[in-house]
Write the structure tokens for this entry.
Amino acid sequence: MKRKCKLSTTNAKVYTDCTLCYHSCGTEVTVKDGKAVKIRGLSSHPINKGRLCPKGANALDLVYSPDRLKHPMKRTTKGFAEISWDQALDEIAEKLLHLKDQYGAQVFSTFCGSIGVENLEMSSLVHLLRSGFGSPNFFSVESICYRMRIITRQMTFGRYPTEEPDSNLYILWGHNPDQSDFPLKFFLKKNMQHGAKLVVIDPKRIPVADQADMYLRIRPGTDGALALAMMNVIVGESL
């Protein structure tokens, strides 16, 4: 949850977003005596309509888990030991500066998770660290994942065409909404009841393939050949 507000000691409702993935589903969080005690989907939110995936529904278990690291830990011969923030920062800075003196600033690179709506703050902080150190090297999940899809679409269509959740035809190509796209799962279920068609392309027979009008169990690594074959038919038959 990312929205900050002052809370009274009595029960309060905070309307915010779950940012465990880029969908950022709407949530209603009940706060009691300054602590979140309950989380539920926000019924008025257009994406999740009051529902939450298992990760979102159990977000408070992550926030208040007794296993969360709250202090720096240093590996010793006897295992990990807690150290102060000052010690941790001093030791890290000393080692980084030593590497910079020995090899130059480019020896240092940073990596963060998604730089989408759910992680903009972390991305900004990582860039401040990188630029302050003098290194041009920045990597993220976007280097090999979602951002490549955006760039490919922009190069192909001249803009970024977004997915329409309501459709008459769904092609799940290496994509499993049951595990990784909670809102799409419900749009798919709703529209298939009204006649929408489903094609699943996946080496693994995911559960939703049993409901598909066509299931293509391609061999791993043959996605490019299938895509070229489809384009050949589209161009050859003027589709």
